[in-house]
Amino acid sequence: MPSRRPYLSKSRLIAAWQCLKRVHLEQNHPELGEISAHTRSLWATGHRIGEIAQRLYGTEDSVEIAFDKRTGLMLNKTRELIASGASFPIFEATFRYEDVLVRVDVLMPDGDGWRVIEIKASTSVKEYHVLDCAIQNWVLRNSGVNVTGFSLAHVNNRFVYPGNGDYDGLLIEHDLTDEVRTLEPTVIDLVGRARDAVTGPRPGIDVGAHCSSPYECQFINFCWPTDSEYPVSGLGGSKAKLGEYVSLGYRDICDVPADAVTAETQKRIHRVTCSAKPELLDGARRAFEALPFPRYYLDFETIAPAVPFWVGTRPYNALAIQWSCHIEETPGRFLHKEFLDLSGDPPMRALTLELIDCLGAEGPVLMWTRYEEGVLNNLIELFPDLRAPLSRIIDRLYDLHPVVKENYYHPKMLGSWSIKAVMPTIDPDMDYAKLEGIREGTAASDGFIEAIQPGVSPERKAELDAQLRRYCRFDTEAMVEIVRFFTH
Ligand code: SF4
Predict the structure, then answer these.
(1) Cα–Cα distance between 222 and 195 in angstroms, integer?
(2) CA torsion, ordered 247, 252, 255, 260, to nearest 10 deg
(3) What share of the chain has pLDDT > 70, as a percent?
């Protein structure tokens, strides 16, 4: 009789480790989940790192077990290869034990056994990575594979790309052989609990910090209350504390008794929300009125690819690829300048020179959070000869965010002082959600990378060009409007 138990993949078991309700919903009600753009972007990064790993570990005769919905085909192909005495690397080798299915990133021949390498796109080894490896080790060992060692290879963020497709050194290996063996009882326990969760009734698990750690759960909008005007999650702060409020039955911020809120920021959000009147203090007006002219409102867009593709750049290093600047020469008199180059050549040098030219020698450079400072420091690292003019720009940076945070809160901001949360409360027409196509940073980064691919059609490239310019310009327009709001 064939087994009727559902397969438990490795990722399902990690989901179960995070939350048994999550694995139940994944198996029984996947339609209730929403995969975010951020999560999709992480998956794409994982695939890209996997491709590079196959190049790094591959040999002329290495074999990849291609994905097939018919799991049996992948299992058979793997079995045949190993039984034939293969002595070459195998990628995505597939094994099953007690209906737990794993696909192994890299299987390297090692004497009369196999050394296993798990590939991760992170820059360090995390606790759940070791569990991930232990699940594979348990399945492989019980499938009769002689596992001689277990390593995890992750991205080396000190690697500098020398060009010519040379990624030697991009990955760093850590030997986890001993750790994965000691975790075997944990794996057996997890498999049992996960199986009960997928086949049994929905586990009664409250929301909390585990909903976004280690991974953002796709069922957040299902589990967290969203059916009130100011959902309790809008209090912000500790996710564990918010989970407690939800478990006590509070759905709206104003359901929470004032004396149950203790952190200062959360007390303020609670007070303003329940008063139904925005808080507007005079400090922002005074601070912004004191800023001299000309004023420069600056915003960068960046990419931070895990696999660098421009010579001299490092993994996950935020590289400026675009900027927008509104220049207020005298009160109310504006000029707009911008930089965007979709040729595919590294744009950073030209971008920097044009920025230095645009920003002149004096006047505050207004930005939102210190992110722009980090981007400028990365440009200094890339172009040490431009250290002096870039350092002078850093000295002129003026961060609007803390001033607004100290002096303004509107209930509709739902616990966030991001520019995307603040702007629509000041001018409902300036809502990022109304932008066509690109309306947040991850989409801008993905859009840029898509636009510079050789195969992109001219129509799509033109569309992305327009969306990227509109999005970046919107950020600096928003800063202009925010300063205007506080000073008029
Ligand atoms: S949102 Fe939280 S409680 Fe709900 S399934 Fe996900 S992790 Fe579990």
Answers:
(1) 22
(2) 60
(3) 99
Res 226 pLDDT > 90: no
What would the pLDDT profile of 89-148 be if each residue is shown by its tens digit?
999 999 999 999 999 999 999 999 999 999 999 999 999 999 999 999 999 999 999 999
Distance from the alpha carbon of residue 71 to the mean position of ligand 1, in angstroms: 28
Cα separation, 91 vs 107, in Å, equals 6
Burial (CB count <10 Å: 0-12, 13-18, 19+), residue 345 = exposed
Calculate how far, in angstroms, residue 30's C-alpha sits from the geometric centre of ligand 1: 13
In the chain, the N- to C-terminal Cα span, in Å, equals 77
Residue 302 has pLDDT above 70, yes or no: yes
Question: Who contacts 226 (Cβ-Cβ below 8 Å, separation ≥6)?
Answer: none
pLDDT > 90 in the chain, percent? 92
Name the residue with the closest Cα to ligand 1, atom 4.
223
Q: Cα separation of 415 and 394, whole Å?
A: 29
Considering all CA atoms of the chain, what is the largest pairwise distance in Å, rounded to the nearest integer? 82
Shortest-distance atom of ligand 1 to CA 18? 7
pLDDT, residue 426, reads 95
- Return d(Cα 351, Cα 359) in angstroms, integer: 12
Distance CA 113, CA 177 (A): 14
Among protein residues, the one whose CA lies closest to atom 3 of ligand 1: 207
pTM beyond cutoff 0.85: yes
| Cα–ligand 1 centroid distance for 154 (angstroms) | 27
Atom of ligand 1 nearest to the CA of 220: 1
Q: How far apart are CA 127 and CA 419, in angstroms?
A: 34
Atom of ligand 1 nearest to the CA of 224: 1
Identify the residue whose tokens are 């976004």. Answer: 212
